[in-house]
């Protein structure tokens, strides 16, 4: 298991044995409504804790072979530890990400299973859910574009930038879920992530109100993205 006692003051002592087990929290009446596209994330509400517990699950064709087992290539190559370290560095650099709480892996011969816990962002809503309620003001789209540009200028390549992994709060835009994310020099990957986001926005608003996502919205996002160029940024590459 991996955690940062210096940052969080040893928050796991009283629940260490069951901290990654949804049934442990369910028995305590502290397991929230499941969230996530593959049903592998849970909200935990325990005293002052407001956490998101996520179990790593495969998608696509590989899920037909194994739902949640990954090849073992060493501790630092596990999905959970890699994501925890990346999120930790982004948090320390002042980028708007959830605070990483803990991560673990369980090795099983040539394979392993993994879990991660992050701080839940209060008063937040995924962009995908918000769009189903109606259109956003153009200023909000600009804020989304500015947020993404901050990450790109810091060299952060999000492996799955989609409308579900952008959280909106009244004061801030956040990015979440940095599984398979990397740090790299600026390059073509930045445009690729924007294309992925555009396709995601089209997909999630397909059955929404016609005005939920328009060309003007996308151009406003790009305007926010472009106007942030050249501003001082956190650099962690």
Describe the structure.
With 237 residues, the protein is α+β, with helices and mostly antiparallel strands. The protein contains 7 helices and 11 strands. It has helices at 5-8, 22-27, 79-92, 127-131, 138-153, 189-204, 215-227; strands at 2-3, 41-46, 49-55, 70-71, 100-108, 111-119, 125-126, 156-157, 166-168, 173-175, 182-183. The strands form 3 sheets. Strands 1, 2, 3, 4, 5 and 6 form a 6-stranded antiparallel sheet that branches. The longest helix is centred in the middle third of the chain and has 16 residues, at 138-153. It starts with a strand and ends in a 10-residue tail after the last helix. The mean pLDDT is 89.
Helical proportion, percent range: 25-40%
Distance between the termini: 26 Å
Low-confidence stretches: none
Count the beta strands: 11
Shape by Cα distribution: globular
* Beta content: 15-25%
| Strand-pairing-aware structural class | alpha+beta
Kindly state the mean pLDDT as a whole number?
89
By DSSP (H or I, 4+ residues per run), the number of helices equals 7
- The H-and-E topology, N to C, reads as EHHEEEHEEEHHEEEEHH
Instruction: Note the main sheet.
Output: 6 strands, antiparallel
Rg is 18 Å
